[in-house]
Design a protein that fits this description.
By secondary structure, this protein is α/β, with parallel strands linked by helices. The chain contains 17 helices and 13 strands. It binds 5-phosphoarabinonic acid (PA5).
Length: 530
């Protein structure tokens, strides 16, 4: 094992970053075959970085690598946009921190809180980075609304109470038309109005030029607008205005994030499998999944700060690789399932199954060498046993679990970083972005579109139209009606109607009588004005 470990251990000295794939049981023949296959992935990545339309289904370039190396952008205009955005983000955050940008009421010199509204790629990166890197006492308290759940929105607004008048609201949507984001924005706006406050002086937009959100922000004179570009995907937008604005406002060193990603990008550009950390990851994934998603990727960071890494990677990997068709249109149903939480916590939960149960996964351990910042000499950390600290347990648990899994024929990858810093987090993000791109090349799919999420959105729209129709019929008929009657009058399917009326009844918008659990006995009536 030691020989194999030494043979396969990758180390980046500038980043203090290790990738160890020695506990993945690939064979020398497989490596030889992968070296050949990776040639294509390297060539495609080179073309992508040079500005080729790498997302043909949407007719777009894929430019997240330029965000941390603007000099590599394919046109001077793109380079200028990237550089200007970073400067604008830095100066906006500084002005908010020092009160040059402040709430409209002169008696309130500083913004205290931020409500960040966005979903998917417009939230997961900022949430992950916030959890990993935000200082304990950040200059602004961050709150995320990444859903259209009224209860979640109410809870936040109630918690904020009067602080809403010192709260900046940032609405993030590349397309500018995502309904969940628009709904949360309307709810928050309503809360400002209830306090007698106009929304625009509190509102910032991050979106593409000329999107619905952009037009609204400009027409109403919102405080500021930051750009998204069509060549940045939501799930790879952490180093665009999306991730940088959130991080800068929280007091996180965004130049460090960019630098870490930039250095990792250089390392993952090396067209040699054995010396490229992302290619090593890709090879390990391919071995485990047989290039067909046969095993799930379990992400186990042994660090509380990295709790959201698995959720972040879940989107990056599954939204990118989970595709029905290959690039020639053949049905392939690709993907890799990703889940995880953190160690050692998971050892008291699902690791039992990982060790002893169904062998349908491979693990990725994330190890952080530094336990905590050094303490004053007269305030040493407590020993939990003679000569043993809590951090030693964390390390022991990681290595112990890894061995227990390996001994029971369960493979794992280990990524080790010196510490959780903007630089290492930037590098981690860049490493996975690249590995996802390489893997997509190997399995011949487009990693940069997301046609599947459209289907659910269309169905949701159809159901909302059906609901509007139902309410209109109930109001017009003004009498109790059965499900069958409503189905025949709307042409809608009866199960959908049943589900809609149950929801309307629970929210006091219609009356249901005869609800004995048997849908056929139901009578549905409009709510009577009292
Ligand atoms: O990665 C993606 O493309 C998606 O997850 C999007 O980020 C998500 O759907 C939100 O889209 P938008 O930013 O347009 O509101």
């Amino acid at each position: 094992m030691w020989q194999r470990y030494k043979e396969w251990l990758y180390y980046h000295p500038q980043l203090d970053f290790y990738v160890d794939i020695s506990r993945v049981r690939f064979t020398p023949e497989f490596v030889n075959a992968m070296e050949v296959q990776m040639e294509r992935a390297f060539a495609e990545m080179k073309a992508l970085e040079a500005g080729e339309i790498a997302n043909p289904d949407e007719g777009r370039m894929v430019g997240h690598y330029w965000l941390r190396a603007p000099e590599l952008a394919p046109t001077p205009a793109i380079r200028r946009d990237i550089e200007t955005t970073v400067q604008r983000v830095l100066s906006f955050a500084q002005d908010v921190h020092n009160g040059l940008i402040s709430p409209p009421d002169p008696a309130l010199p500083h913004f205290t809180d931020v409500i960040w509204i966005g979903i998917g790629g417009s939230a997961l990166g900022p949430q992950f980075v916030s959890q990993a890197l935000a200082p304990l006492f950040p200059p602004l308290q961050f709150h995320f609304l990444d859903n259209t759940d009224p209860d979640g929105i109410d809870r936040l607004l109630t918690q904020l109470g009067g602080r809403l008048q010192t709260t900046l609201t940032i609405v993030t949507s590349k397309s500018g038309s995502t309904p969940e984001t628009a709904n949360a924005m309307k709810e928050v706006r309503h809360a400002y109005a209830q306090m007698g406050l106009e929304f625009p002086p509190y509102a910032v937009a991050v979106t593409m030029e000329a999107s619905k959100l952009d037009l609204q922000a400009r027409q109403e004179g919102w405080l500021e607008t930051f750009p998204m570009y069509d060549w940045i995907g939501g799930r790879t937008s952490e180093m665009s205005a999306v991730g940088l604005l959130a991080a800068a406002l929280e007091g996180i060193d965004i130049m460090g994030l960019l630098e870490g990603a930039r250095v990792m990008d250089s390392a993952t550009r090396v067209p040699n499998l054995r010396h490229n950390p992302a290619a090593l990851l890709t090879m390990a994934w391919y071995w485990e999944t047989k290039g067909k998603g046969e095993k799930a990727m379990v992400i186990l960071p042994y660090k509380d700060r990295l709790l959201l890494l698995s959720r972040y990677l879940q989107q990056l990997v599954m939204e990118s690789l989970g595709k029905a068709k290959d690039r020639q249109g053949n049905l392939v149903e690709q993907g890799i399932t990703v889940y995880g939480n953190k160690g050692t916590t998971d050892q008291h939960a699902y690791v039992q199954q990982l060790r002893d149960g169904i062998n349908n996964f491979f693990a990725t351990f994330i190890e952080v060498l530094r336990d905590r910042p050094p303490r004053e000499i007269d305030n040493p950390p407590p020993e939990v046993e003679p000569g043993i600290y809590s951090g030693d347990y964390l390390m022991g648990a990681l290595l112990g679990t890894r061995k227990a899994l390996y001994d029971n024929n369960r493979d794992s990858i280990t990524i080790t970083i010196g510490d959780v810093t903007p630089k290492t987090i930037g590098a981690l993000i860049a490493l996975y972005e690249r590995a996802v791109g390489f893997y997509a090349s190997l399995v011949n799919i487009n990693a940069y579109d997301q046609p599947g999420v459209e289907a659910g959105k269309k169905e949701a729209q159809r159901l909302l139209q059906l609901q509007t129709q139902l309410l209109a019929i109930l109001a017009q008929e003004n009498r109790p009606m059965t499900l069958e009657e409503l189905a025949s009058k709307t042409g809608g399917d009866i199960e959908a109607i049943y589900q809609i009326v149950r929801h309307l009844d629970a929210n006091f918008r219609i009356n249901l009588e005869g609800n004995t659990g048997k849908p056929d006995t139901l009578l549905i009536s409009p709510l009577q004005e009292s």
